[in-house]
Every structure is written in C-alpha cells, then in structure tokens.
Design a protein that fits this description.
296 residues, seven-stranded mixed β-sheet, Metallo-beta-lactamase, Chain A, alpha/beta, 14 strands
Length: 296
Amino acid sequence: MRVLILGAAAGGGLPQWNCGCPNCVSARRGEIPPQTQSSIAVSADGETWVVLNASPDIRTQFLDQPALHPRSVRHSPVAAVIVTNGDIDHIAGLLVLREKTGFDLFATGEILQIFKGNAVFGVLDPDHVRQKRMQIDVPFEPAKGLTITPYHVPGKVPLFQETGEVDTAMISENTIGLEIRANGRTLQYVPGCAMITSQIKDRFASSDHILFDGTVWENEEMKKTATGVKTGLRMGHIPISGPQGSLAQLADVTTPAKTYIHINNTNPIWRPGAAERQQVLDAGWTIAHDGLEIDP
C-alpha cells in the first residue's frame, strides 16, 4: 500500500490567510514549511489512486504529486474520492474536480444529502461523477486491491449545519473513520474525532498504521492564541495533550505506527524545536507534513 499525504493541516491551512499567529508568521517567513488542508491518497498498486477528503487545495496537491498527474490528454489516475465528513475543508475541493473526468464519489447518506441539497455541487456531472452511498461497517472496494470500511467516530455536524445547542460527540453518519486494507496491510484514517471510544482503540490496536486527528495541542488553544473562542472539543476535535488527550489515551496502543494529521495552524507541534513537538516525537508519533509518503 502506498499512502501520500497531500495535505497535513486543518481547515485554513498553514499559514491561514487571515492569521498573524506566531506559526503563520513563521510559515510566511519560510521558518515553518507551509501546509495545505487535510487530504491523503492511497493506492494498492501505485497506478490507481483513491483520494480521501477533497481539500480546497486539491489542485495544488495534485500538481505536487507526479503519481496523480494525467497520463493522456484527458485522464486521471484517481478512481475515487471518499469524504469522512461534510466540513468545508473536506468537500470544497470537489468543485475543482468538475472538468468531466470520471470518478466515484463515496460518502455516507448524511453527507450525500449535503451534495444533493446544494445546487453548486451540480457542477459534478452525474454522467461522470458517480455518487455512491457508503454503509457503516460494510467494506467496499473503490479500486482494485483496496478495501475500505467506514466506521463511526464521535463528532458533530458540519459548521454550516449547526443550529442551537450542538452535540459535539454524537455517533452518526456525519463523522466517520476509514479502515483501509491492501496487500495484507491495514491503515486507519481518522482526521476528525471528538472522543476515543473503546471500539476505536480496539480497531487501532490490530492495525499497522494510524493517521489521527492532531488538530489542537490543548483544548483552550484557540483562546490562548487569541485566534478564536471555541475549544478544541467544541470544534469536534480531541486535544493532543492532557490526561484525556489523544497522546495519553493512545499511549498503550503500541502495535501500529502513529501519525498526527489535520493539524491546526495554531498548534505548537508545527514549530521546530518546540517542547510540544518533541513530546509527540518522544512518544513515538510522527507529525504529518505535505508530501510525506507512508509505507504502512
């Protein structure tokens, strides 16, 4: 199995267009490599690819990966796109893929309703882009040799669907994880997770590699950096640090390699030499970055 990190950052990327936090300033100066918004590509043979989440930066991401370049006048090695939730940073890139080259678009019933209910997604010609519903815990094969199983992950509805009091850790089809199997290897992809359940830990423990939600270092990060008022948990993302953070909760999951992805522009683990970054590395985790290739 080949796994390409197309984008490692959370929504807005690094630097974020309107942000002057220390990380974004450093990224503009070239002190931290700029990062695009979260997306990966997977393949069982290195020829046919499946993209997981369609970042708004998808054009640049495809340009930067020769494996995803067309091989004839009108062609794409991308057979399918699969989305794990309805957040803008995971679906807006679909609008870039409107030039009538075919692929399958897989999503849960809840997310397919977003596409059907918003006329702008009508640019995806149904004669070329075949929308297909995923069923929770039912494996399917989006490309030869690649088997994917969607499963429940605690999360919330997309920001643009929020009304009233929001359940930020509900079990629904709005937020899912993906188990990817190919050639005897297993990868877990969970870019958004509000709470780690025993079922998620059990699934992780029997895998070769996990790509997990690294959005914020601490729950109050947005407030402490003066970049927002919401906590990580309110945004539907478990923090990395603290006794209930993902670093502690997944410390006893030792079989798979572990990589943080979907990392917010404010997260100190971006900074070379930061104590928080070193803590993550000392715990055996890798920090994803654009262009990283993983061999599960």
